[in-house]
Write a structure and sequence with these properties.
It is built from seven helices and no strands. With about 120 residues, it is mainly alpha-helical. The chain has one domain. Helix 1 runs antiparallel to helix 2 and helix 1 crosses helix 5.
């Protein structure tokens, strides 16, 4: 049971990390035209990617202050991004396995008892 929760948490964390990095890259890449064009209006894709990135980067983004940007090495920021994804993975794994955790039952054992 614990192995299943850990695997779920790791899988969700990897998916979260990929979605976070992807949405930041799309939002940043789409907004590059704003540097050349002062009258640039962001596209729907850029606005959606920016909103998704803002959601997925929480709560880690709230912890990273301007002071930290100036005084902390980049590896700390990278570690915070990884920990943020891991936090999301653990939270979703616990939500997905809440029924099993609340009942204290192992679904694998119940399936074996039903067939015996």
């Amino acid at each position: 049971m614990k192995k299943r929760i850990l695997l779920t948490a790791a899988g969700v964390a990897v998916i979260h990390l990929l979605l976070s990095i992807g949405s930041v890259a799309v939002a940043f890449g789409s907004g590059m035209e704003a540097f050349d064009n002062p009258g640039y209006q962001p596209s729907m894709v850029e606005r959606v990617a920016d909103s998704i990135a803002g959601i997925l980067m929480q709560p880690g983004m709230s912890l990273w202050t301007p002071w930290m940007s100036k005084n902390m090495p980049n590896v700390v920021e990278g570690g915070l991004i990884l920990l943020n994804s891991l936090l999301w993975g653990i939270a979703w794994a616990l939500l997905l396995h809440a029924k099993t955790l609340a009942g204290g039952k192992n679904p694998d054992n119940n399936a074996l008892k039903a067939t015996s």
